[in-house]
Design brief:
heterodimer; A: about 425 residues; mainly alpha; about 0% strand; B: mainly alpha; 30 helices; about 70% helix; flat
Chain lengths: ~425, ~600
């Protein structure tokens, strides 16, 4: 396929061995494409007449010839070589793009393989979107091998290229029903490899965008394959270090799934709890954001199923010394829908949250957080004042007993002693 | 007995009779169910203690089933568990009962998290050695089969690592089944599984009978080497090395070489990189004839590959390639077939390629001999010494000693010394550091080789060294002190007294602790020589202090003891202040004169 040269992916580890070149500053000069090999000698293309200048009977043949000419690759990274020929190619391509957009009857059967071979993105997209386009002919050339190579290109470092690829793949998915299962499977493999082997792939965000619209179009009831994809691929995607690069798209996919089938809420939430970030606060804030989006669409019956593990985690977040995490968690209390859910279930949620909230109100270093916590405590007090008072009293007496025991020397096994005692 | 309902809950239950000695064990078991991950983790790490206390019977009947069910736990805990179980054979009653460990490990081998799976596979491999052949066929092989036909890819990838350990001791019928299973994994739908299979192909081939290798492994290898995913193909190249070691020359030519040739020209640079990276192993495995006919031409192509990574990998292997060639042909092959390409690489556009070349090119001088080195290699060294990239310069300087041996110090100093002098003022401190570290060696060789060696040392090298005493980087300065200490014995007393001593004294006042320390060590050595008392004079190059680097702590001197050697410093790192040093220097002096 000829296209603007792609830059090879920059990775620290590729298939188990590290590329030494990335340890140095790579940004100084752009790398040459690994798919492009220079021909050596300069290429000469004989200029062909313009399409509009020839009679319409000769246009198809001329069109084909021009397509073939444009298959010749030039090194556009080298700004000095082959200037005349590059200019010719550039103008020819523009001409072809216009031609295909405007003219009728130009997509004969012979043109299909030539277009697939040339693969210039702008042209290819017009080609796919053209009214004349017939999938039945094209499927001979746009086959599994083609799709596989297309997916590999998603690893490009150039975001414009990835954007084009996204559009191309989206159109292909739309038009070629026979390829859909294959495309989904290959995307699965790419993600699984990304999560479990390399943690490197540049095109995750774009692929997730496509998946978002695919998920949107799922028919109900959801197939087992799709549910498995959610639990075994999308949820583990949350574990990678580079989550920030594609988190928005990922969260969108998750929410789409839950809107399609609310019964998936429990596995999703449990999955998120399992992979909850332990050391990266930035990720924690992202997770909290995603969680809120999920809670926005959650059904009350599902909420009840997951409220305990959920609020245990939220209690931990609220007491986090990292103020952004604490703040983000406390902002849940600004969300009307979440508040209504909490209110309905306050007899379960309040005991879980209480001790953390109470402690924070006395001990947290950040005054803004303390202020937010006071508001939350006040909200709880108004929600369920009897329970609130009970909990306050128990908390205080527990603290007193703990202090009494602490008088004993604290050897580790004796810790077990009194801990066991309290559990009883 | 309280234990009848499984592991007891709460203290005292595990003992059954309230036996206090089992109470801590009960606590540990209790902790296995605690909410806090850290406590569960601690408990798992002491699993062997629990097992010992329970005894083999109860470990088998209670602990292991309990563990098999804790699969729904945090990955950290599972990892610790997988590790512990690998050493549990003794705790369950020995090899006859090793198979009891298989159920929990089987579960662990299907977990999503890669590190847990890998550890489980490692433990399974360990345990398989402890199975009796009967138990192996009855329990282990079925486990492998189950894993290999699991529906999620994780179990199938784990299975790949277990074939080679159960094959050797299985019966023939079972062996056929095992091979069949492996074959199907090599053509699995999921690339992850194919990758795992490809990475274990070499290991598996080594335990098979030669016929099976030829009839089954080679086709698998060929298929994997033409897989649609380049990540699979490149693993096949690794397998190629192992397979090649098993086959005869003729077989290699017909069965393996076509695939290898293809790999060396693969359209994916990663596969070509792999060929370059494994070149030495391939060369050894394929033998001299194939190397000459096929591998060398392939190597030439790799040296001029369009992808810099590949060129750099190939450049790294140049020296090893030469060393692994048969002695009689080495020189000609390198001269005629490799050298032209190397000359191109010296002016490569990519700095990593040049740097890789610089780290090995000096080694070629031993292969090519004196004349060729002087005529062909020396210009290349010089060109690289002046390269704009500091790492290239550094790599050349660090390897100059092997060239010393070949062309002799005179020639070297004539051609390279001017360049080296320039480098003493290089902008990069590591380059300067390498120069100053090289100086003693150079000086030593000069002194040994000829009478006027001392002159060259004093006239040309000493000024450079002394000038570097004013370097802004402390590492360079303290190495100046070290070098002066080593060069000292070669120099004459005039130079020592007039030039070296003042510089050393100045360094002794340096603000950096390390500089001061080494300067003071050097001062005492120099002082000794200057005094020319009846000390046993040490040979050049060996300092009269027993310690060359400050990390070595000698035995402290007992009062009244006379070691008969030079000064022994009972110093630790932080008592290196001037006063202590001078005191000791004085003590030494006096104690000797007392004798």
């Amino acid at each position: 396929m000829s296209s603007a040269p792609t830059t090879p992916p920059s990775v620290d580890k590729v298939d188990g061995f590290s590329r030494k070149s990335v340890r140095k500053a790579r940004q100084k000069r752009s790398q040459s494409s690994s798919q492009f090999r220079s021909q050596g000698k300069p290429i000469e293309l004989t200029p062909l007449p313009l399409l509009k200048d020839v009679p319409s009977s000769e246009q198809p043949e001329l069109f084909l010839k021009k397509l073939q000419q444009c298959c010749v690759i030039f090194d556009f990274m080298d700004t000095l070589s082959d200037l005349k020929m590059k200019e010719y190619k550039r103008s020819t391509l523009n001409e072809l793009v216009d031609y295909i957009t405007i003219s009728r009857g130009c997509l004969t059967e012979q043109t299909y393989p030539e277009v697939v071979r040339m693969l210039v993105y702008e042209f290819f997209i017009r080609f796919l979107e053209s009214q004349e386009f017939q999938p039945s002919i094209a499927k001979k050339y746009i086959d599994q091998k083609f799709v596989l190579q297309l997916l590999e290109l998603f690893d490009s470092e150039d975001p414009r290229e990835r954007d084009y690829l996204k559009t191309v793949l989206h159109r292909i998915y739309g038009k070629f029903l026979g390829l859909r299962a294959f495309i989904r499977k290959q995307i699965n493999n790419i993600f699984l490899r990304f999560v479990y082997e390399t943690e490197h792939f540049n095109g995750v965000a774009e692929l997730l965008e496509i998946l978002g619209s695919i998920i949107n179009g799922f028919a109900l009831p959801l197939k087992a394959e799709h549910k498995q994809f959610l639990v075994k691929v999308l949820i583990p995607l949350h574990t990678v270090r580079s989550l920030s690069l594609f988190h928005a798209q990922l969260a969108y996919c998750i929410v789409q799934f839950l809107e399609k089938d609310p019964s998936l809420t429990e596995p999703v939430i449990r999955g998120l709890m399992k992979f909850w970030p332990k050391t990266c606060s930035q990720k924690e804030v992202m997770f909290l954001g995603e969680l809120e989006e999920i809670l926005d669409v959650i059904e009350p019956s599902q909420f009840v199923k997951i409220q305990e593990p959920l609020f245990k985690q939220i209690a931990k977040c609220v007491s986090s010394p990292h103020f952004q995490v604490a703040e983000r968690a406390l902002y849940y209390w600004n969300n009307e829908y979440i508040m209504s859910l909490i209110e309905e279930n306050s007899n379960v949620i309040l005991p879980i949250m209480f001790s953390s909230l109470y402690r924070i109100s006395k001990e947290h270093w950040n005054p803004a957080i303390v202020a937010l916590v006071y508001n939350v405590l006040k909200a709880f007090m108004e929600m369920n004042s009897t329970m609130f008072d009970e909990l306050t009293a128990t908390y205080k007496s527990d603290r007193q007993r703990l202090e009494d025991y602490l008088i004993l020397p604290l050897l580790s096994y004796k810790c077990h002693f009194f801990r066991v005692k309290i559990n009883k | 007995m309280a234990g009848a309902s499984g592991l007891g809950t709460g203290p005292g239950a595990a003992g059954g009779d309230g036996d206090d000695s089992l109470y801590p064990i009960a606590v540990l078991i209790d902790e296995l169910r605690n909410e806090d991950v850290q406590l569960r983790l601690n408990s798992i790490k002491k699993l062997s203690t629990i097992a010992l206390a329970l005894g083999v019977e109860r470990t088998r009947s209670e602990l292991l089933p309990f563990l098999t069910d804790t699969i729904y736990d945090e990955d950290e805990v599972l990892l610790a568990l997988a590790e512990q179980l690998g050493n549990f054979t003794g705790l369950v009653g020995g090899p006859d009962f090793a198979h009891c460990l298989l159920p929990p490990l089987e579960n662990l081998a299907t977990v999503e998290e890669t590190v847990v799976r890998d550890k489980a596979v490692e433990s399974l491999r360990q345990i398989s050695q402890e199975h009796t052949p009967v138990a192996l066929e009855a329990y282990f092989v079925p486990l492998v089969k189950r894993l290999a036909s699991g529906d999620w890819f994780t179990s199938r990838t784990s299975a790949c690592g277990l074939f080679s350990v159960c094959y050797p001791r299985a019966s023939n019928a079972v062996k056929a089944e095992i091979r069949q299973q492996f074959r199907s994994l090599c053509s699995d739908d999921t690339p992850m599984v194919r990758r795992a299979a490809a990475s274990k192909l070499g290991e598996f081939a080594k335990v098979l009978e030669l016929d099976s290798v030829k009839s089954e492994i080679v086709p698998l290898f060929t298929n994997l080497a033409s897989d649609e995913q380049d990540s699979v193909r490149l693993l096949a190249v690794e397998a190629c090395v192992s397979i090649a070691q098993l086959l005869s020359q003729d077989d290699l030519e017909t069965l393996v070489m076509p695939t290898l040739r293809q790999a060396a020209e693969d359209k994916s640079w990663r596969v070509r990189y792999m060929v370059a990276d494994k070149f030495s192993e391939l060369q050894k495995a394929m033998g001299p004839k194939i190397t000459l006919n096929d591998l060398i031409p392939a190597f030439q192509n790799l040296l001029k590959d369009c992808e810099a990574e590949v060129r750099a990998a190939a450049a790294h292997k140049v020296k090893e390639l030469g060393e692994n060639l048969p002695i009689e042909d080495r020189e000609t092959i390198i001269m005629n077939q490799i050298l032209p390409y190397i000359k191109e690489l010296v002016s490569d556009t990519n700095q990593h390629v040049k740097s890789a070349l610089a780290s090995v090119i000096m080694g070629l001088s031993t292969i090519l001999g004196k004349e060729n080195t002087i005529e062909h290699l020396l210009p290349l060294f010089l060109a690289q010494l002046k390269d704009e990239c500091p790492e290239v310069r550094l790599n050349i300087i660090s390897n100059l000693d092997c060239v010393n041996e070949v062309i002799g110090i005179r020639q070297l100093s004539q051609s390279l010394l001017p360049a080296i002098v320039e480098l003493a003022e290089d902008a990069k401190w590591r380059v300067r550091l390498a120069i100053i570290e090289y100086m003693p060696l150079l000086a030593g060789q000069l002194a040994l080789s000829e009478a006027c060696g001392q002159e060259i040392t004093t006239k040309q090298m000493l000024p450079i060294v002394l000038k570097m005493a004013g370097d802004q980087v402390a590492n360079v300065r303290f190495n100046v002190a070290k070098s002066l200490q080593k060069i000292g014995p070669i120099l004459d007393t005039n130079a020592l007294q007039g030039e070296v001593k003042p510089v050393l004294q100045k360094l002794g006042q340096d603000e950096d602790m390390d500089v001061k320390y080494f300067a003071q060590e050097a001062i005492s050595v120099v002082a000794q020589r200057l005094r020319k008392l009846d000390f046993p004079v040490k040979d050049s190059g060996e300092p009269s202090v027993p310690r060359a680097d400050k990390n070595h702590f000698p035995r402290p001197r007992v009062p009244g003891e006379d070691t008969g050697k030079g000064p022994v410093y009972p110093l630790h790192g932080d008592t290196r202040d001037t006063l202590a040093q001078l005191e000791i220097a004085e003590l030494v002096h006096f104690s000797q004169s007392r004798d």
